[in-house]
Amino acid sequence: MVYGFRLAAADPRVVGVNLVAPEDDPISLADYSRHMRAVAFASAEAPEAGVALHAGELALGLVPPEELTFHIREAVEIAGANRIGHGTDVMHEDDPYELLARMREGNVAVEIILTSSDVILGITGDDHPLPIYLEHGVPVVLATDDEGVSRTDLTHEYQRAVTTYDLDYATVKELSRASLEHSFLPEGEKQALQSELSRRFARFEAKEAARDPE
User: Fold this and answer.
1) 21 by DSSP, 3-state: which?
2) Is residue 141 a contact partner of residue 180, using CB atoms and an 8 Å limit?
3) Could you point out which of 25, 62, 144, 214 has its C-alpha 20 to 30 Å from the C-alpha of 205?
4) DSSP conformational letter for 6
């Protein structure tokens, strides 16, 4: 972990550090708070680097209930994560609405990984917190987690989100823009990609408008 942050400090091609591991592993459970403090300590090596952490990738029955009450919060408040991977147990956190507000106000994004959450945790449909994150204004990005393991890709994740939660076109655009906005790319590259995305949306919308007789 320290090496990762030192590499980010030394090489501008490394824009962030993403830490993942089985969150229900006995060592992870026993030392979770220590791990979050370790991330905070190590990240001082590269304060400009983004920090992404899988947190809240848990479900009832997988771990003791008390383990569902603080992982996302500590990843945000102690480790200083800019992005939270999964975040599926958010409504089991202590004071979840305050946490959602903190994520919104702190511009902390949540990576929604629908297929992986279904396959690994059995969480899908109304049991998944995607609608809650959207309702509370938390920045949301769609992700695949591991395409090779889950046998999915980003197109299918968007399709699944739209068909499962009846997302409208404006929300799909918002999710696409958020994926760039909350990436760890340099600002100049973000702006260039946002401009290109806007052009692509405009071309698509013009094409669809020409096709629709109304």
Assistant:
1) coil
2) no
3) 144
4) H
CA–CA distances in Å: residue 150 to residues 60, 154, 163: 22, 11, 19
Distance (Å) of CA 97 to CA 61, 93, 150: 23, 9, 31
Structural element, H or E, at residue 85: strand 83-86
The two three-digit tokens of residue 63, written as one number: 């771990």
pLDDT, tens digit (0-9, with 9 covering 90-100), for 90-129: 999 999 999 999 999 999 999 999 999 999 999 999 999 9
**The tokens of 161 are what?**
């989100």
Q: Which helix (H) or strand (E) holds 129?
A: none
- Identify the bridge partners of residue 54 per DSSP, sorted by sequence position: 85
pLDDT in tens, 154-195: 999 999 999 999 999 999 999 999 999 999 999 999 999 999
Task: Provide the whole-model pTM.
Answer: 0.93
CA dist., res. 85 & res. 62, Å (int): 18
Q: Which helix (H) or strand (E) holds 109?
A: strand 109-112
CA dist 214 and 210 (Å) reads 9
Higher pLDDT, 21 or 27: 27
Tokens standing for 173?
A: 């655009």
Of 106, 189, 119, residue with least CA distance to 157: 119
The 3 state secondary structure assigned to 68-110 is HCCHHHHHHHCCCCCEEEECCCHHHCCCHHHHHHHHHHCCCEE
Q: Cα(21)–Cα(29) distance, rounded to whole angstroms? A: 11
H or E segment to which residue 210 belongs: helix 187-211
